[in-house]
Structures are given as C-alpha cells and as structure tokens.
Amino acid sequence: MRVKLTVQKFNPExxxxxxxxxxxxxxxxxxxLLTALLKIKAETDGTLTFRASCRAAxxxxxxxxxNGSQKLACKTSIYEEMEHxxxxxxxxxxxxxxxxxxxxxxxxxxxxxxxxxxxxLSKGERxxxxxxxxxxxxxxxxxxxxxxxxACLSACTSYDVSPGFLGPAALAKAxxxxxxxxxxxxxxxxxxxxxxNGIWDCVRCNFCVQVCPKDVKPMEQIIRLRxxxxxxxxxxxxxxxxxxxxxxxxxxEGRLNETLLPIRMTWGNLxxxxxxxxxGIKMFFHGKTPFPFKRVPGSDAVRAIFKYRGKAK
Amino acid sequence: MKYAYYPGCAAKGAAxxxxxxxxxxxxxxxxxxxxxxxxxxxxxGVITEADPDLAYMLNARTLATAEKLNxxxxxVCGTCQGVLGGxxxxxxxxxxxxxRINKALQETTGxxxxxxxxxxxxxxxxxxxxxxxxxxxxxxxxLSDLSIAPFYGCYILRPxxxxxxxxxxxxxxxxxxxxxxxxxxxxxxxxxxxxxxPVLLEKDQIALSMVxxxxxxxxxxxxxxxxxxxxxxxxxxxxxxxxxxxxxxKEEGSGIKLDMPILHLPQLLGLAMGLSPExxxxxxxxxxxxxxxEKIE
Lengths: 313, 297
Fold this sequence. Notes:
The structure holds two protein chains of two kinds. Helices cover 44% and strands 11% of the residues of chain A. Chain A is built from 15 helices and seven strands. In chain A, the strands form two sheets. In chain A, strands 2-1-5-3-4 form a five-stranded mixed sheet. In chain A, a hairpin with a 2-residue loop joins strand 6 (98-100) and strand 7. In chain A, helix 12 runs antiparallel to helix 13. Chain A is globular and about 70 Å long. Chain B is an alpha/beta fold. Chain B has two domains: 2-121, Glutathione S-transferase Yfyf (Class Pi), Chain A, domain 2; 131-296, Rossmann fold (3-Layer(aba) Sandwich), CATH 3.40.50.11810. Helices cover 51% and strands 10% of the residues of chain B. In chain B, the strands form two sheets. A four-stranded parallel sheet of chain B has the order 2-1-3-4. A four-stranded parallel sheet of chain B has the order 6-5-7-8, sandwiched between helices. In chain B, helix 2 crosses helix 13 (265-272), helix 4 (52-68) packs across helix 6 (95-109) and helix 10 (204-220) crosses helix 12 (241-252). Chains A and B meet through helix 7, helix 10, helix 11, helix 12 and helix 13 of A and helix 3, helix 4, helix 6 and helix 10 of B.
C-alpha cells in the first residue's frame, strides 16, 4: 500500500519554527518505520535527519514520536500503525531539545543516568558467594534490560512539569544496583534517592511502563525502591508516611478516610499542615470531609487480612 | 443488565456527589446494581507499595464477594478500575499466586476467588454493554451548546495489558459519551495525562503544575467544562484548581483565569438526562458549577 508519512521537520539554525512535510512510500506488511525512513532518505530527501544503528531494538538510537507516542522506529510496523491510527505522523521524541528533525540532544537524559552512579560500587574485598548470585536475574526484575533509548523520560508526566526529576530510566538503573548483592553501597544509594527529584517525585502515571520497548517497567522498579526505603527505615518523610499511614488507615477502617489521611501524613510537619488546613475547611463546608471515626461494614474482615499479613511478614 | 457496584472510598468519602449521581443515573437507565456494602479499599496503588500480597488479598476479597453474587463488578473510579481490574487480571492469569492468595483469604475470611469475575468501569459499561445508541434515547436535554474536555486520567488507560478496554494511545470512549449527550468534545493533549493526585500532599508543586497545564489547555481550546471518570482526578482538578491558577498566574501572567467546572462522568450524563443539579450533587464542587448550569438552562 502507498502510505503517507507526515514528518515534523526542524532545523533550528535555519527554520523559525517546526513544520510538517509529507512523504510517500510503498509499504508492504513487513515494513518498519525505520526502513521507510531510510528509503525516503535514500530516494526522496537526503536532508531528512534521524539517528539509527542496529535496526533491531538493541541500540536504542531511533526513538521518536510516532502518532503521539514514544517508539523505536525499528520496532514500529507501518502496517500496524496505519491499522491503529489511520495515519502516520512522526516527530522528535517529546521533552528533549531538538538538534535537527528527529535528532535530539540526549544530555539531560545522560545526566540523570549518571546521577544515580550507574555502576557497581564494590571494593571486592568480600567476594559474594556464587550461591547468592543464583537468582540475581529474578531479583533484577528486568531492570537490567534497559537500552537507554529515553522513551520513558520523554513520556514521563512528572519530568514534563519538573525537569529536575531523575526520571524513570535513571531510577530503574538505581534499582538495578540496589538489587545486586555485590554492590556495597545500598544504604547510601537509598539515602541519596530520598532527596527532592528522587524516587518520591514519581506520580505513578504508568506512561513509562507503557512506552518502554524492552518491558523494563521503570515505575515498578521505583515502587520497589520505595518499598526498600521504608524497610530500611526511611519512614519519617511525608512521602513515606503516605504509604505507611494510608496502609494503617485502611487496615483499621477497611477503607481510606480522606479526612484522617492528610492529618496523619502531615502530623508533626507544621508547614505542610498549615498548607492543607484552609483546603480542609473549604472541603468541610462542601460536605467533602468524611467523619474520621465512622465504623464501616466489612472492617472486621479487613482487619483479619491485615493481621494475617502482619504475621506473614 | 445487573452488576455488583463497587463504589470505592472516594465516592463514599470526599466525593459523595459521585455516589449520588451514579445511583440516580443507573436508576434512570434501568441498569440494576447491587451495592457491595461491606467493600474494602482497592489499595489505590499505595498499599501494594507497602505489601503487594496484602493488596492482592484485599482485591481478591472484593472479587470473591462479587463472584458469590454471580455478578460482574461495576466500578465508578478510574483508579479503582486500574487497581482492582489489574489485580483481577493477575489473579486470573497467575494460578500459583491465586492459590497462595486464596489460601490466605480462606483462612482469614472464609472466601475463595475462582477467577470468573470481570471488572468494568461505568464508562465502559455504557459504551460497550449498554450502548451509546441506547443511551441517546434517554437524553432529554441535549447539551448542544457545550464544549466538554474529556480527562481520562491514568489508571483507566494504563498499563493497557491490565485495562485493555480503550486504546491507550487514542482512546475514544469518553468522546463517544460526550457526543451522546449532544456536546462537542475538546481535542487537547492533556486528556490522557496525569492529574498529579498521588503526590498532591507531598509534592504539591508537581501536582499543581499538572492541574494548571491541563485545565489551562482545555480552557484555551474552548472547553466549558471538563469531565472525568475518576474521582481522584476530580479532587485534583476541582479542589486544587484555585491554587493551580495562582501558580499559573505567578509564572505566566496575572491575566490567566481557569474557572473550569469539573464534572464526574455520571453528572454530565445526568444533566443531559434531565436530572436536576441538586440531584447530582453539583453544589459540592469547589469550582462553582452555577455558570455552566445557567448556560444549559
């Protein structure tokens, strides 16, 4: 079939702003977007600029925006994309400064990855017995599968409004070393991640899980880091209390109580408390503050479940 | 058409207008619901951060209760849909996990989940089971003068292998319902993005930026109101809108006004079905809905 590709072109040195150009290719069922782009570059427009190397979803170079989502061109089928969207519109990956057409500056991404010390910290004085490394693959939960393509950061809704956030790929990398028994700096690493722009800035929107071409599920690695942090005793922040107090409230009441949780989360943090009180009063006058000590049906069963898990842990 | 209705904590807590409007709308449409009166929290993706098995047990209890009634579950909260529906998918697929959870569930509550229940959000029930055409027969007050911005929220769309109803890249169900009530859906980028609710208390600057960005964009594209299938998005977009506006004014100029009424999905439907704003609990919102109501009437 003859397919139209609408490509966002932009050369900041020449063009006042990005513009769209249409290209046409004859595409068979097997054609990938990358093959189509290489064909266009060879036959129609030599100025069309994009990164690509392995053509097999290993090198992570050809990430771009395809019909509004972040995808590797080499892993994207023209046929499926047409079936799905009825059109093909591509541009540079979102949230990154454009150098030309689909080529973006990846420095912000590399800075973040570097920020988590992405290598094993070990003096090698205490060799880890092979036995302990047997289930390493399972422990890493595919966090080592990352090809550093940048899809997750580009799609990250928290990074979109808060560019300081370390972001999904870097934090998945942080988990990768946290889960490795050979690393000797687990506690120091966790402490570092408690800071602003660390693990607690993730909003759990699932975009990174969705766009990752290697199924690394970065958000789930961030959740593992949060769990490890709480287990390691980093429990005093409002962020950690969101988890511990939420769980306690549900364990006691059976349900979440939106009046109780903010009080318990911010207890002892005057600045935060002062910030929520005016809203609490407004909510009260709109009938939006549930009575904090209402016994709800079913709470006995929930308490039994919590008791069981408490013992199991 | 009969479902086990799982209200979720918000509809029974800080967003009582959601429960109120759901009840009115399903009643009007003749969809029979049995409320799971002794329901527990789905965990909202938070309890699993503390203890995944605990979250599975809580959700297995809900699913087993519905299974005993021989009914599928109707949710009215995007987050409940994602979390309870997601837990259901895992419990259905992973037999070893289900056996482990069932053993614990039986010991504590005497219940067991066999994996036969489906979890569906009201939005999906209306589009798929009830049908948009059937719904349009109940529209007595078409909202033809209104442009409504759909705000899906995260968990009703992503991760798609756990939800699997709408196309996560290009969802259409909310737009279908907006057209069914006679209004015009607003096209804007923010419709599938995040409202920031999960970090509202601890990282309010992130959440407020999100609220300001999406509401601002919807406003700029001509939206008269926003509609959402998630009460947590509603809290973020409604309760924190004034603060988001102030932040936006500080950063981008004092002329910016948001004033965007945020509707729960059943409220939008109810208005078009001729239900009164009082019946739909519209006065409980923090952003006044009166100007919108005036426009309709």
